[in-house]
Write a structure and sequence with these properties.
The chain is built from eight helices and 62 strands. With 994 residues, it is mainly beta. The protein has a nine-stranded antiparallel β-sheet, with no helix packed on it. Strands 1, 5, 6, 8, 13, 14, 15 and 17 form an eight-stranded antiparallel β-sheet that branches. A hairpin with an 8-residue loop joins strand 51 and strand 52. The N terminus is likely disordered. InterPro entries: aBig_2, ConA-like_dom_sf, GH43_arabinanases, Glyco_hydro_beta-prop_sf, TAT_signal.
Length: 994
């Protein structure tokens, strides 16, 4: 039964803590703002009292019912920060981060009569619910999905795109039971009141008091009202996998009766009130968008973003001083004094917003203060040539140009691809491994508006890291839309198809920052091979973000770490947050990867993104994904804004790159649902080549010149073999000695993520095969192009990375511990008094450091060169050992050689003479040692023992009594204190006396 009508009078509001810009609204709006106790609208008709009224007042986790009925809703995931003051209204800003649970009793279901009034503003088209009566979250067309009535304020469904979608659903046997109201259009500008009235078998939907849709149905409200304590939700869908709401909601009312058309009009907030709330929120959102890198409006030194629209409201800008701030937001850096400017935005609502701005006069010190260089660097240095604050021109000089280059005054940008932002400066030549670090002083010389200033920076250039041959592979990946953490795996040895999880199968990195989700990790080995970088997408679908909002309001950051062992990862920026690399007009930053550019001597980081007309993201045209890139040398500072890399008018994502010979080869996913021009199939991989990594791509072409752009060399590479759509391609060069490699040693593994069917599948190919692919002889159409049987890869990997590793890193990953020192072997040999130690590492890698030779009381320490060291052993030392002492990095363990015995330093000569017609032999023994030796001389004509002092020569004569003798040997045997011995022979030549 319908209760007696009562005059609607707004209950005094229990105000939540004001935030935002409410205090300044009156100064910028020409519209009147009602008081906190004023009626919502003049009553043209008496309106029944609502069963609940949520004006977005809140306390703790309760969304307060101000009708006096005490039917407070329960907030989940929403906090004080989710609410904003907008004129006289509070607004709940749903950002896909929470929802409100409605209590039972708002609508009873005793008949089919009810009314829901919902005042909302949103520019996000998504499959989500603004409100729903009903409970039971589940998959479409299942019994787990509860019966319900819902309204989506801006839908992404086909036939309802950017329009209001409302429906009633009561499942029956064999029938999903959903009846949708006909599409009646979208929201009005700013806040719009959508009122749904159920009366008997008819649903009527009003937009700001005007009917936009009706539906006649046979469903019963009693089949929808849940039996539990939750009637339904604000901002939470019942369809499993759909996203939470992204919208601003200012007012919601429920009645257990059907309002008349006049009552609908009388109840809803007045147009002026909605305009005031829209404008108040608009000011804060405009301010947030316009600031850019500036800390506040009274400290502006870089360009402002003056959007053409924000929140669907068109803006027209004017400036009180266009020479200082233009109407497009360009901020002059030519002023000499701080200058005030007033910016005015005229809105399509008929209101104006004014912003008082102070533009700071540029100072050289600000640009110099903004320069940060690592204290110790293993990479080329980002020696900026343009100030990041005021745009000063900067050149660099170096105290040691052989180690770090200065800015090249003669630098000229290439005809194709990106210019070097550092103009030849900052190129580092690291000392060889074992030579130690080198200190260099770099001086920045800044010039701006005729002024100059300089600043010096002391930098340590690290010696090169230890090299060892690759002996296996590592992988990083995430698992699913419900498990967005980074996992790792490693091979059991030097066989690519022997992966198993590491870290006990547990996640290696779990995000607690930004979106709190990590996807698409990519690992790149540094150009010198002694460090790894990992980049990942900042995205969390399991947190309630739908795929629509993920592309329209996604993160502008990439998550970045570095490691030397693939076990311990550190943020490159030293903070628990990602690094913003994308621009405000971008919709997302997906699947970042990186590759070393030989020409630029920098890393190119590339990613997929949508690009809107401006930061308001309100346009709906040209929103296909395209590829962008930025440059970095240290994965801390990146060039900005991103440069367009691939824009062909068709959606592309997930590029990966390898270099073979003079060409870069790029594998990319065609993200279109079908063919994209000459790309034959959607959701599949194609291949291109170019000599310039950063060359732009504006079309797919088999005949494009790879010297100036990217030439298509293959398309539809995987789906015909796998039977599945694919993405996240990876291309990995096989290690020497891998049994999967070929006899020439140029083998590659190509991988594709069959995201709907279990993850990665692999193809084995070669450099020659990749490089020879062309339209008439495509790699993917050759007989040898065949997908391997499943197995040998990480279990259920999604869009990840694969990289070669040394044995020590492989061992550390499997044991999930620090890198252990590699065992060494020291071998000692002697030649005369020279001893030589050769040191080898168990993994056949570099060995540097020192060797200490020891014998008796003598020791000598010698630096290794090319793995060996030599010393001359002093006289008197009879036995020597060599000890490899290791190196300061502790990467190779010490070892000791076996002892080598050394003899007396004796030498002998033999001569003959004739005495009375008979031969006499003379044997002379020289002792080069510094100790006396007892020497036995024995030959064909007798033996003698003599004592030879150190440094002396002693001769012994032997009478042969023969006029002629044949050639023969004489044995020299000596010994001395300390165990020194000697044994040798000397030859007596044949002789005859005449």
């Amino acid at each position: 039964m319908r209760p007696q009508p009562t005059t609607s009078t707004r209950v005094p509001r229990r105000r939540s803590l004001r935030r935002g810009v409410a205090a300044s609204v009156a100064a910028v709006l020409a519209v009147s703002v009602m008081g906190v106790t004023a009626p919502l609208a003049a009553n043209a008709a008496d309106v029944p009292a609502p069963s609940a009224h949520y004006d977005m007042s809140h306390s703790g986790t309760s969304l307060l019912d101000v009708s006096g009925n005490g039917r407070h809703a329960t907030l989940s995931g929403l906090t004080d920060a989710s609410f904003a003051a907008a004129g006289s209204d509070d607004v709940l800003r749903f950002r896909a981060d929470g929802y409100a649970s409605l209590p039972k009793g708002l609508v009873t279901g005793t008949d089919n009569d009810f009314t829901v009034e919902y005042t909302v503003s949103t520019q996000t088209a998504a499959n989500t619910f603004g409100w729903v009566i009903g409970d039971g979250v589940g998959a479409w067309n299942t019994t787990q999905l509860g019966n319900h009535i819902f309204l989506s304020p801006r839908s992404a469904q086909g036939g309802y795109t950017n329009q209001v979608l409302a429906a009633i659903r009561v499942k029956t046997d064999g029938n999903n039971g959903e009846n949708r109201m006909p599409a009646g259009g979208g929201l009005n500008a700013g806040f719009t009141t959508l009122t749904m009235v159920g009366s008997g078998s008819t649903l009527t939907l009003y937009r700001d008091g005007v009917v936009i849709s009706t539906l006649t149905h046979t469903r019963s409200l009693s089949s929808i009202i849940p039996s539990g304590n939750v009637l339904g939700y604000l901002g939470r869908p019942l369809y499993q996998g759909d996203s939470l709401l992204r919208a601003d909601v200012s007012d919601v009312k429920f009645w257990d009766v059907a309002l008349t058309a006049d009552e609908v009009t009388s109840s809803m907030p007045a147009a002026a009130d909605k305009t005031a709330a829209t404008a108040a929120l608009l000011r804060g959102d405009v301010l947030a968008n316009m600031l850019g890198s500036n800390p506040s409006l009274d400290q502006v030194s870089s360009n402002l973003t003056l959007g053409a629209s924000v929140n669907g409201v068109a803006l027209t800008w004017s400036s009180s001083n266009p020479a200082v701030i233009s109407t497009t937001g360009v901020v002059s850096r030519s002023i000499v004094d701080d200058t005030p400017v007033t910016l005015t935005a005229t809105t399509s609502l008929g209101t104006t917003l004014t912003f008082d701005v102070t533009v700071l006069a540029p100072t050289l010190s600000a640009d110099l203060d903004a320069i940060t260089l690592a204290d110790r660097s293993t990479e080329h240095l980002p020696l900026a040539t343009k100030g990041t604050v005021n745009g000063a021109d900067i050149t660099w000089t170096s105290s040691n140009p052989a180690v770090v280059t200065a800015t090249d005054a003669a630098y000229q940008a290439p005809a194709v691809g990106a210019a070097d932002p550092f103009r030849g400066g900052g190129l580092v030549t690291r000392p060889a491994y074992g030579e130690g670090d080198v200190e260099v002083t770099l001086t920045a010389h800044a010039t701006l508006n005729g002024q100059t200033e300089e600043r010096s920076f002391d930098v340590t250039i690290a010696e090169q890291g230890r090299w060892a041959p690759d002996a296996g592979y590592a992988s990083a990946y995430f698992k699913s839309d419900g498990d967005e953490k980074i996992y790792q795996a490693a091979t059991s040895g030097n066989d690519f198809f022997t992966f198993s999880p590491v870290n006990g199968g547990n996640p290696v990195i779990t995000s607690t920052a930004d979106t709190k989700g990590l996807r698409d990790p990519y690992i790149l080995r540094s150009k010198d091979g002694d460090k790894y970088y990992m980049v990942a997408t900042d995205l969390c679908i399991s947190c309630g973000t739908g795929w629509g909002p993920a592309q329209s309001e996604g993160s502008l950051k990439i998550e970045v770490w570095e490691s030397t062992d693939l076990v311990h990862w550190d943020r490159t920026n030293g903070e628990n947050t990602g690094i913003t690399v994308n621009q405000p007009a971008a919709g997302m930053t997906w699947a970042p990867e990186a590759y070393w550019d030989d020409e630029l001597q920098s890393y190119v980081v590339f990613f997929a993104s949508r690009l809107y007309s401006d930061a308001s993201h309100t346009n709906s045209d040209k929103l296909y994904a395209r590829m962008f890139y930025v440059l970095t040398r240290d994965f801390q500072t990146f060039t900005y804004p991103p440069a367009t890399w691939q824009d062909t008018g068709y959606a592309r994502i997930d590029s990966t790159v390898t270099k073979i010979g003079d060409y870069y080869y790029r594998f990319t996913k065609n993200e279109e649902g079908g063919a994209a021009g000459i790309l034959e199939a959607g959701k599949d991989i194609f291949m291109e080549r170019s000599k310039a990594l950063t060359a732009p791509t504006t079309q797919s072409s088999w005949t494009a010149d790879p010297n100036t752009t990217w030439q298509l060399t293959d398309t539809r590479m995987t789906s015909l073999e796998t039977g599945q759509a694919g993405e996240g391609p990876e291309i990995v060069k096989l290690n020497a000695g891998d049994p999967n490699n070929n006899a020439v040693g140029d083998g590659y593994v190509f991988l594709v993520d069959n995201y709907g069917a279990g993850g990665y599948r692999a193809f084995v190919t070669s450099e020659r095969a990749i490089a020879s692919s062309q339209q008439s002889d495509r790699l993917s159409q050759r007989a040898e192009w065949a997908v391997r049987p499943a197995g040998g890869l990480p279990a259920s990997p999604r869009h990840g990375a694969f990289v070669s590793v040394t044995q020590s890193v492989l061992d550390a990953m499997h044991e999930w511990t620090e890198v252990a020192a590699v065992a060494s072997t020291t071998t000692l040999t002697a030649e005369d008094r020279t001893v030589t130690a050769a040191v080898t590492a168990e993994d056949d890698g570099d060995v540097v450091g020192t060797v200490t030779f020891s014998g008796g009381s003598w020791t000598q320490t010698v630096d290794l060169e090319d793995g060996s060291a030599s010393a001359i052993v002093p006289a008197g030392v009879g036995s020597v050992t060599a000890h490899y002492d290791g190196y300061s990095d502790g990467l190779v363990s010490p070892s000791t050689s076996s002892a080598v015995s050394l003899g007396l330093q004796l030498s002998a000569t033999a001569s003959t003479r004739c005495v009375a017609g008979k031969i006499t032999e003379i044997v002379s023994v020289t002792n080069a040692d510094d100790v006396a030796a007892t020497v036995a001389i024995a030959g064909a004509y007798g033996s003698k023992t003599v004592t030879v002092a150190g440094g002396k020569t002693v001769s012994a004569s032997f009478t042969t009594r023969a006029a002629s003798i044949a050639s023969h040997d004489v044995t020299i045997t000596g010994e001395a204190a300390g165990g020194l011995t000697h044994s040798s022979t000397v030859t007596v030549a044949a002789a005859t006396c005449q």
